[in-house]
Amino acid sequence: MAMQITNQADYALRSMIYIAQNGRDRLTPSNVIAEEMQISRIFLSRINSQLVSAGLIKTRRGARGGIMLAKSPAEISIYDIVTTIDGKINLIQCTEDPNACPLSETCPYRLFWKETENLLIAQLKGTSLQDMLDKRKALP
Prior knowledge:
Layout: H1 7-21, H2 30-36, H3 41-53, E1 57-60, E2 66-69, H4 78-86, H5 93-96, H6 108-125, H7 129-138
Antiparallel strand pairs: 1-2
Helix pairs in contact: 1-3, 1-4, 1-7
């Protein structure tokens, strides 16, 4: 198995950047997001439920309904989105629970993986949706 985020987290990231580019206070219809970001409408609906519960987006039902960010893009980190969907970032079980491995006390990899995990978390927490919008604008 590869070390990667789930398709669900990838779709959540795509959806959030699409919503962010449309403006914080502007409702974007869910079907438009699904079509533009090539995500199943049913799958997007499940993702949206999790993002609403986490306080990252707001939804409004009806003909004039849609989805909007609950905070400014600068206040929403990639970490917020990924962990809302995929849960806590844990590269290897022994970094969270040293008792998971009988070799953890003498294993040089435990510290390496914990440091790597901390770097990844710092990168995700230090990158906001606004940063992604800025990078997108810089693309040709």
